[in-house]
Write a structure and sequence with these properties.
- InterPro entries: AB_hydrolase_fold (IPR029058), BAAT_C (IPR014940).
- This is BAAT/Acyl-CoA thioester hydrolase C-terminal domain-containing protein.
- The protein has about 210 residues and is α/β, with parallel strands linked by helices.
- The chain has a single domain (about 10-195), classed as 3-Layer(aba) Sandwich (Rossmann fold).
- Helix content is about 25%, strand content about 20%.
- It starts with 11 loop residues before the first strand and ends in a 10-residue tail after the last helix.
Length: about 210
């Protein structure tokens, strides 16, 4: 990335959503030169499949597909399928984010029906502080679901999952979710400008 002509450097910022979020957490924890990381409704443990890096393997967070729920409309929700990352048998799946060089911004939809995103963000905050690191910035949006897209994208409350091939309900109330997408986009840009460009002005959330 640093060798790409469109990348100014000298450092890199990451933005990850859902499973992409825990991949970005892993990248920030193990790779050099990453100085700012944004996570949108992400888990603090490695999920879905074991993660291989050099001679290390981080196992996936234990899940139970028997706990999938079906809404009245026939959509599936996966929030209850994930076990607690703090349980002893899941400790090895936790990503050592305290090794990261830069700060974190967690964007949380409080009606996320795919992950317990607020809970995961709190785990991250407590873990970082326990290791003497800076508390991450956490912005929680009420009535906002899993898929927080750029501004003016139609709210994605449900869709056929590209991997699972099933209709999944993501949560969110359309008006509140749409407002959250506008605000979150501003927050993300402000965060990256501050930590990648050195601009210190912070735009506080209006929601």
């Amino acid at each position: 990335m640093l060798q790409h002509p469109k990348v100014r450097g000298p450092s890199i910022g990451l933005l990850g959503f859902s499973k992409g979020g825990d991949l970005c957490l892993s990248m920030a924890s193990f790779l050099k030169g990453i100085t700012a990381t944004v996570l949108i409704n992400a888990c603090v443990a490695n999920t879905v499949a074991p993660l291989h890096y050099k001679d290390m393997i981080i196992p996936k967070l234990v899940d139970d597909l028997g706990k999938v729920k079906i809404t009245k409309s026939g959509f599936l929700t996966f929030m209850d399928t994930w076990s607690n990352p703090l349980e002893e048998h899941n400790h090895q799946s936790l990503i050592p984010l305290e090794k990261a060089q830069g700060p974190f911004l967690f964007i949380v939809g409080m009606d996320d029906q795919s992950w317990k995103s607020e809970f995961y963000a709190q785990i991250a905050s407590e873990r970082l502080q326990a290791h003497g690191k800076e508390r991450p910035q956490i912005i929680c949006y009420p009535e906002t679901g899993h898929c927080i897209d750029p501004p003016y994208f139609p709210p994605s409350r449900a869709s056929v999952h590209a991997v699972l091939g099933e209709a999944i309900f993501y949560g969110g109330e359309p008006k509140a979710h749409s407002k959250a997408q506008v605000d979150a986009w501003q927050q993300i840009q402000t965060f990256f400008h501050k930590h990648l460009n050195g601009k210190k002005s912070i735009k506080h959330s209006k929601i």
